Amino acid sequence: MEQEFHRIKRLPPYVFAEVNAMKAAARAAGEDIIDFGMGNPDSPTPQHIVDKLVETVKNPKAHGYSVSRGIKGLRNANAAYYERRFGVTIDPETETVVTLGSKEGLANLASAITTPGDVILVPNPSYPIHHFGFMIAGASVRNIPAIPGEDMIEALKRAVQHSLPKPSAIVLNYPSNPTACVCDLGFYEEIVDFCRAHGIWILSDLAYAEIYFDDNPPPSILQVKNAWDVAVEFTSMSKTYSMAGWRIGYATGNKQLIGALTRIKSYLDYGAFTPVQVAAAAALNGPQDCVDEIRALYKQRRDVLIEGLAQAGWDIPSPPATMFAWAPIPEKFAHLGSLEFSKLLLKEAQVAVAPGVGFGEHGEGYVRIGLVENVHRIRQAVRNIKTFMRNHNAGEAL
């Protein structure tokens, strides 16, 4: 029996699939592909975290069902992190819940708070779950600018004035994936004031809180007075501690939102494997030198990539945060669009990137480059791209 399922019909074809298929075929043919496409950390998880996992796995009592909202020790560790990093006091019993990575938390909260037909405000371009978590839940998504500033504030005002029903929630993501934009506390204050006045929930994705490259650590929206009335924030262990495959994240903030997420998760999962949670607590409570080292690693890679590509003739803004560069397609190739340019770069330079259109229609004209190869490989990619650019500048047909 063939049947079209309603929620599946709302999901567009996966834009990255074509590039991924080409990449797999090239590797099968023996080509050496330098892969900047997926934000998958390549450095090892710090050893003391792995050691705690191994130690806990050896305890047979740790192999039963865990706790859906997260073990108490891990919730306490997240509360301590917020106090230490942001000067914010949270109640680990009612104001935070452990998630299976921030992506699962975002999707399940969207499901918990959405009535079909609700209008949700989401930046475009943005990480796909920000859009599709709500679309799967039956919402209508209204796009707003991704860059923090007056244009976004004006877009919020228009959305409240012209949307029926009025927007019920907004998604924020700073530092941003894919654009690497950052914002300051003053911007969050404007957003909080606006959303409180109009009864709009705020879902803030702060997965890249610790991957920044200047002297201004990204703030938490929960530092804003009264943010707790409307806001919940998602953080993650994935990038901070190179623990992407461990699937540990957190939702923290407004008690009503945390309660809704906790309740829906209680029907869907028993929480992450207990030894993983114990090791995650060790990561948050233990020495943080490893975080400084991971941050320095991405900064070095960023500098090698940006400086090298500038010398190759491809000028890319240097990202102030995240593990990505948001790269405008070189003018000579702009007419191709981001998907075709990505395919061409893979074919002729053996470098894989993520087409910007995969992050929303306003990502067209860009590609996302992940800082997920070592410096030696980045330099090789730069050489390949330099040759690619030189060949086409010499008049080779596109």
Alpha-carbon Rg, integer: 21 Å
Mean pLDDT value: 94
Structural class: alpha/beta
Strand content: 5-15%
Distance from N terminus to C terminus (CA atoms, Å) equals: 44 Å
Low-confidence stretches: none
What number of domains? 2
Largest sheet, order of strands side by side? 2-8-7-6-5-3-4
General form: globular
Short description:
The protein is an alpha/beta fold and 398 residues long. It has helices at residues 6-9, 16-28, 47-57, 72-86, 101-113, 128-136, 150-162, 185-198, 255-268, 274-285, 289-312, 337-349, 375-393, and strands at residues 34-35, 96-99, 119-124, 140-145, 169-173, 201-205, 231-236, 249-253, 324-328, 351-352, 354-355, 366-370. The chain has 13 helices and twelve strands.
Describe the structure.
- With 398 residues, the chain is an alpha/beta fold.
- It has two domains: 6-44 and 290-391, Aspartate Aminotransferase, domain 1 (Alpha-Beta Complex); 47-285, Aspartate Aminotransferase, domain 2, CATH 3.40.640.10.
- Helices cover 44% and strands 13% of the residues.
- The chain has helices at 6-9, 16-28, 47-57, 72-86, 101-113, 128-136, 150-162, 185-198, 255-268, 274-285, 289-312, 337-349, 375-393; strands at residues 34-35, 96-99, 119-124, 140-145, 169-173, 201-205, 231-236, 249-253, 324-328, 351-352, 354-355, 366-370.
- It has a seven-stranded mixed sheet, sandwiched between helices. Strands 9-12-11 form a three-stranded antiparallel sheet. A two-stranded parallel ribbon has the order 1-10.
- Helix 2 (16-28) runs parallel beside helix 12, helix 4 packs parallel to helix 10 and helix 5 runs parallel beside helix 6 (128-136).
